[in-house]
Amino acid sequence: MLLLLTILQALAVAIVQSQGDDKILGGYTCVQNSQPWQVALQAGPGRRFLCGGVLLSDQWVITAAHCARPLLHVALGKHNLRRWEATQQVLRVVRQVPHPQYRPQAHDNDLMLLKLQRKVRLGRAVRTIPVARSCASPGTPCRVSGWGTTASPIVRYPTALQCVNVNIMPEQVCHRAYPGTITSGMVCAGVPEGGKDSCQGDSGGPLVCQGQLQGLVSWGMERCAMPGYPGVYTNLCNYHSWIQRTMQSN
Residue 146 CA to chain centroid, in angstroms? Predict the structure, then answer.
C-alpha cells in the first residue's frame, strides 16, 4: 500500500509539472480588463482557442504568422474564455497578411496582420496599443499575457487571462542560448534565474514594455522557463514601417 501511495504521489507531481510547462509560468491572474489590447484567436467553424493577438486599431489585429489558419475569429474584451462576458466582442477575420519574408523553419519575421470584418467598439475593456518605434534596451521591464494551454495529461485552458513580468535580455544571452538562430527580427525576454516565461499556447500574444507593444510571443525551448533560456519574441520595433504601411494600404 505504501509503495502504491508513493507511485501515485510521483504521478501527481509529474502531472502538475507537465501542466506547468505549457502555460505562462511564474505569473499571476491578470486584473480583469487590465490588458484591453489582448485578443484571443479562434480557429475553424468551432472557434477553438488557438493563439493570442493584439489590437492595433479599430479594425486591425497583429499576431504571430505561425498562427495562420484558413478560418479565424477574434475575441476581444475577454478575461475568462470559458464563459460569456458582457464586455466581449467576436469578429470574423476577413484578411490575413503574413510578413512577406516569414520563414517558418527559422521562426524569422514571425508576424501577421489580421483585418476584421468591421470596426470594433472601443471602450474600457477593448483598447488599442501603439507599436514601439524604438527597440527596448536590456533590462527594460515588460509584461506578457496569454491563455497558454496545459497539455498533459489532457488539454486544458486556464480559466482567466494570465500575466507574467519579465525583462528584455541582453543580445549575448539570447545568442548564447540559441546559437546561430537569432536574427534582428527577434528579441529575448525573461529573467536570468528562469521560472518566468511565456509558453505554448501564448503565441502571438503581447510583450508590452513601458506602455508600448514591443514584441509578440514567437518561440523558445520546448520546456519553458529554464534558466539561461529566455523566451523569444518577434521584435516589432524593426517592423513598425511595414505594419503601418500594410494597414494603411488595405
Answer: 6
CB atoms within 10 A of CB 85: 14
**E strand or H helix that includes residue 113:** strand 112-116
In this structure, are residues 120 and 89 in contact, taking their beta carbons and an 8 Å threshold?
yes
Which grid coordinates belong to 153? 495529461
* Closest to 37 in 3D by CA, of 131, 100, 110, 102: 131
Report the DSSP beta bridge partners of residue 63: 112
Model pLDDT for residues 64-81, shown as the tens digit of each residue: 999 999 999 999 999 999
Catalytic residues: 66, 110, 203
Q: How far apart are the first and last CA of the chain?
A: 67
- Residue 176 is inside which H or E element, if any? helix 171-177
The whole-angstrom separation of Cα 108 and Cα 233 is: 10
C-alpha dist (Å) from residue 1 to 5, 9, 10, 11: 6, 12, 14, 15
Query: Domains in the chain, please, with CATH?
Result: 33-128+240-249 (2.40.10.10), 140-238 (2.40.10.10)
pTM: predicted TM-score of the whole model, two decimal places: 0.88
